Each structure stands twice: as C-alpha cells, then as structure tokens.
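Worked example (supplementary).
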Amino acid sequence: DSGVTQTPKHLITATGQRVTLRCSPRSGDLSVYWYQQSLDQGLQFLIQYYNGEERAKGNILERFSAQQFPDLHSELNLSSLELGDSALYFCASSPREGSGFDNEQFFGPGTRLTVL
Amino acid sequence: AQTVTQSQPEMSVQEAETVTLSCTYDTSESDYYLFWYKQPPSRQMILVIRQEAYKQQNATENRFSVNFQKAAKSFSLKISDSQLGDAAMYFCAYFSMEYGNKLVFGAGTILRVKS
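After joint prediction of all chains, the assembly is encoded as:
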C-alpha cells in the first residue's frame, strides 16, 4: 500500500458525459501527478500540482482539467467523454516538487474508466 | 524531448533463472534519474529500482540490478533467481533533473515466469 488513495476504483459511463476522479496523496506529500495508461498511448503524464498550484502540463486534452484543494487532495475532471478516453488513470504523490532521490513518486491503485 | 524505448514487448524466463530487460533512452541532459517500475496484474505501479545518472555504480536491490551505460544511454534490468511473483509488466522510466515534474515511460515489457 503506497498510501495514495484513489476513488472510485472503477467507473463506467457513456460518451458525452463528465466524470470526476479523486486522489488523496500520502500524508505530508505536497505534489500530485496524474498519469493516463491506455492501450494505444501507453503511460503518459497529464498534469502536476504542487501545494494547490499547477506546475507542469503534459499531454492533457482541453476537455480534461484538474485541481488541487487546500487539503491537498486532487480531482481530475474529464468532460465530453469519448470512447478513446477509456483508460486507467493513476495519481501519484511526492513530498515536494522538482527532482531528487528523496522526491520519489508513489502511485495510487488507479481508477479504471470505461466509456461506452 | 526525452524518449524511452523498450524494444522487447515480451520476455519469458524459467523460474530460478536470470533474465535481462532492455531499455534505451534519448536525452540531452547530463544528469537525470532512471527507474524501473513493476506493474503486476493488480495494476499497482511498484518502484523496483532507481539510478541517478551521475553515479557510476550500478544500483542493486536484492535480486534486481541494473546495467547503466551512460554513454550508450542504456539502462537494462537484470532479475536473478526469477520467481513466479516477478511475472508482471515492467516499465523503464526517465525523470529529468531540469524538468523534474514528470516521469517519461517506455512502452513496457511483459515478463512471463515459467515454473
């Protein structure tokens, strides 16, 4: 158990809908990262927040948005869902932003999103 | 942009034997981190081993060791005395020192362990 929690574990929805994925980082971690794992794109970085502020953006679609709240939990919002958005969405957390051996990213169990 | 290549989509190893998974990467940076992650059927991402580029000595964690060749931009993972529990997808990942906000993953290698 990494200490990172994600809810829900599974989500099934229809095209055009909007969903929210939630992540609670490890106690004391200030950075949260979102990754998407799909069959055709592999594992790719979406976005990072540090202490409530957006710090880095990867291949995140405009239909997707995220935020980190004062209690440090984060939510990833996916709207106007398409079949291709079906994937495993991981959240990871680390103590701080930036690099460093002591800034290891710990991954949550993921949320499996299925768009029908 | 940094890229990570894992050229072996699938590998098999007999229990108790040794297997090596390959990884190459492309970067213009001189210092960075490299990781191997394991993803078992549960889908949980588990850190196996890590290496900082400026350190010449290859990292070792119990049965897992790496062969880091900086000039060749190669970072292979050796699993000794393979166990059934080692069966999983293995991802090689790059983490930038300068742009240290994300992990860049390879496509992964499925490792099957035969009893």
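Two points are worth noting when inspecting this output. The longest strand of chain A covers residues 42-50. Chain A touches chain B at residues 2, 33, 35, 42-45, 48, 55-56, 58, 88, 90, 92, 97-101, 103-105, 107, 109-110, 112 (CB under 8 Å).
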